[in-house]
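Minutes, methods subgroup
Present: GH (chair), OT, SY

1. OT presented the first of two proteins processed in the latest run. Sequence and structure tokens recorded below as shown on screen.
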Amino acid sequence: MKILRKSRGPKATLTVVNGRRMHARVSEGRATGGPPVVLVHGLVVSGRYMVPLLNELARSHAVYAPDLPGFGRSEGPAGAPDMAGLADALAAWMRVAGLGGAVLVGNSMGCQVIAELVLRHPDLVEKVVLQGPTMDPRARSAPRQVWRLLVDTTREPPSLVAIEALDLIRAGVRRSWRTFRRALDDPIEERLPGVRVPALVVHGSRDGISPRRWAEEVARLLPDGRLVVLPGTPHAANYSAPAEFARAVRAFLANG
């Protein structure tokens, strides 16, 4: 693992995995114990989108926020991998980084990647947190998802739009669209019963993308799932309500 720079906040690292560089942000110096926490971002964005939550969780854990292949500063293949391909790449990075028995915390499409990773690489995972999971089967079409995104965007902090725009430019419209189609085609509801680790589903009450009925269904489908609701919080709880999200995660890790 190569450290690119050190400054206040997380450090940036590059790790070569299967011949490609994967970029990650890593917390520094404040962890007091417990399993490592890996934050898994959603569609278009990168690990930068997870930094507010990383900073909160770094008070108690070593926290890692990788950029999935083809997003942020991580190199990706020519095509767009499906959720299984992204999960395998993330698992390979975790093995190189020495992160076994980890807690995986995902937002949006990151929850789909986590579900695949648990099924394919169960030895790497101790617990999972799924926040704002996609794709709701009742809205598994591009027009419906785009409409939900537009609704949710009006509820998010304005500064988030700049982060999403920059990450979209880096990833490219073609890759982002193809990955979106891959996510639409992924029936996460069929995989959740196989996620046999303690799981927390986190729902923001103002989430315009992942409605409460779907969050409740996700929690029911998980063999050891439970649901917590963050009042007044939109889809990107990791960015808009990181302190509240971190408290829910810590309570789950302490009592789950």
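2. SY then presented the second protein from the same run.
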Amino acid sequence: MNEKRTAIVTGGSGGIGSEICRRLAADGFNVAVHYGSDASAAASVCADIEAAGGTAMTARANVSDEAEVATLFAAVTKRFGGVDVVVANAGASGFGPIAATEISEFERLIAVNFRGAFLTLREAARQVRNGGRIIFTSFQLAERPRVGTGVYSATKAAIDAMLVSMSKEVGDAGITINSVRPGATAPGMFDDSDEERADQFRKLSAFNRLGTPTDIAGVVAFLASDDAKWITGQHIRADGGMSN
């Protein structure tokens, strides 16, 4: 059995997820880089980790499929001997007025952000070893919805509410569960055509800049560490003061 601690990061193939994978590997974790469809991106993250002296594997799963989530955890346990940290980072975005939202779009966001996160967190509660960590990547909009973010905000807020209850359910095993609420981050959230909107978010920050995936990965790494053993059931704002 591998004596190093092991982390699963869903949505680990790009953006914030890839930086979380790299940071946890740098902190000494075996890392399972989960992906939904982009195998090459996941392989690239895995290669980066191994080139830096870490240990990683890639693992594909549709997080909204109950059987595939169970298979994901089983594959990681088979490779590394168990799971100590789960970062439920996989998510989908979509914005627009409620009145203009098609049911297909509503169901897509529910499938990934609510059902997918639920299945991941449920399996984590079943599989994570004593003293482990469960971390959910939420968003500032879960706390402060804006015009056009209603469905997306609701999917994130629903999981944030659920994990407060979960913290009481897994506490006897020394397991903590928390969410991280990033604000606007780049790259990944904005493209060249969104410069005006990006500038609006910069002005909301105390530092007059957007967040970066590295900023968020640092907060996740702290919550995954032994230093965070007394923090549970919390929603950590990691938005550079954008929600103040």
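Chair's summary of item 2: Residues 6-238 form a domain with the Rossmann fold fold (CATH 3.40.50.720).
Next meeting: continue with the remaining queue.
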